[in-house]
Design brief:
Blueprint: E1 4-5, E2 12-13, H1 14-26, H2 45-59, E3 71-75, E4 78-87, E5 93-94, E6 97-98, H3 99-112, E7 117-128, H4 133-150, E8 153-162, E9 170-179, E10 196-199, H5 205-213, H6 231-240, E11 244-249, H7 254-266, E12 269-273, H8 281-290, E13 303-307, H9 312-320, E14 329-335, E15 342-345, E16 351-353
Helix pairs in contact: 3-4, 6-9
Length: 366
């Protein structure tokens, strides 16, 4: 017998919630574009349409269908998380990091927010003719240092070289495997009305840093990328707060996009408090000058979590006890209505819709 799901708005049974999720999963996606554009790589609506209409439609299987950052797999008696990501950032080096740190931390963090303990990585390089060997050595050294910090080993890989002008210096793809040691199932379907929404620290640092590093903007600000491995921080939260329902690192498309994906998949609403969202003053100022919402800007060392209300204080305390979580904040809650939307309570007392990223205002940032 199903239990009623508590929360504001009309009460819906668990079966009704699951039915809504199933209808959304089966709804055919449409890709109206005839050619690939930069927007298809931005992590927003165009990316979602591309992934669902082209890749998911052909590769559909139970492990892929949730479209989480990592797939959860069972191999004999072991439960594993498996994830892959490609990195095409320009420039290759920027304040606070490089493509090397991103290539390790990005995949490590996808495993961590799946609830896994990251173990092993592969690394595949596409190198452009003319790349300085000293730059490649610097990138690989950064990867080695990041892997050591994350507690993972790079155990296999591949290298290809393409003609000058074909690869913008260096592209890297990493694939990771992690162990699911905890008996937990994180996912959008676990979210419930009344749950708390938590972010692990100030947002938008990475995307703004990369934009300023390109030198095409007459802006000067002391901003560094937040790229960092999240495994230790996530483990600390999971130990302190057993009621964690869902986690996602807010990379392409930023916090707004990952929360819209959550709302759509869960058939619930996300209500955010604008005054509670942590953004560094210099980052907020740069975003204002650029006309960009910080909620749409990528982070590379932050994650968003949905937590059972009674466990929210413990989750915040656990985050703030770690150097990478000192700026953690409770930024909103899950509600029953309106399903599939993210809403913001503004500083002026009104409410606005926070939509998924449209277009690509910050290309090639990860």
């Amino acid at each position: 017998m199903s239990e009623s799901v508590p929360g504001p708005g009309p009460r819906r049974t668990e079966a009704e919630v699951l039915a809504r999720v199933e209808r959304a999963r089966r709804r055919p996606a449409r890709l109206v574009d005839e050619r690939i554009t930069m927007a298809h790589g931005a992590g927003g609506k165009a990316t979602q349409a591309l992934v669902e209409a082209v890749f998911l439609e052909r590769f559909r299987n139970p492990a892929l269908e949730p479209l989480e950052d990592g797939a959860t797999l069972s191999l004999r008696s072991a439960r594993l998380a498996f994830s892959t990501d490609s990195f095409v950032v320009s420039p290759l080096f920027f304040p606070g990091g490089s493509i090397g740190e991103l290539a390790v931390n990005g995949t490590v963090n996808d495993l961590a927010v799946s609830g896994a303990r990251p173990l092993y990585l592969s690394a595949a390089f596409v190198l452009e003719e003319g790349l300085l060997v000293t730059d490649l050595e610097r990138i690989v050294a950064a990867m080695a240092s990041a892997a050591e910090s994350a507690g993972v080993a790079v155990v296999t890989g591949d290298t290809k070289v393409v003609e000058r002008g074909k690869a913008d210096g260096c592209y890297i793809t990493t694939t990771g495997i992690g162990a699911l040691d905890r008996p937990i199932e994180l996912g959008a379907a676990a979210a419930r009305p009344g749950d708390a929404v938590v972010v692990s620290g100030p947002i938008a640092d990475h995307g703004v840093t990369v934009m300023l590093a390109r030198g095409g903007l007459d802006l000067a600000a002391e901003i560094s990328s937040d790229t960092a491995p999240l495994g230790d921080l996530v483990a600390r939260v999971l130990d302190a707060a057993p009621g964690v329902r869902w986690m996602r690192d807010a990379t392409r498309g930023g916090v707004a996009t990952v929360l819209n994906e959550l709302a759509s998949a869960a058939g619930l609403a996300v209500l955010l408090d604008e005054a509670a969202i942590p953004v560094r003053p210099q980052v907020a100022g740069a975003c204002e000058l650029l006309g960009i919402d910080p909620l749409h800007v990528a982070c590379e060392g932050r994650f968003v979590a949905v937590v059972e209300p009674s466990d929210a204080p413990a989750a915040i305390d656990a985050l703030r006890s770690h150097p990478r979580g000192e700026g953690a904040a409770l930024i909103g809650e899950i509600a029953a209505e309106p399903p599939g939307l993210v809403l913001m309570r503004t500083a002026f007392g009104g409410t606005r819709v926070v939509d998924t990223l449209v277009g690509d205002p910050l290309p090639r940032i990860c």
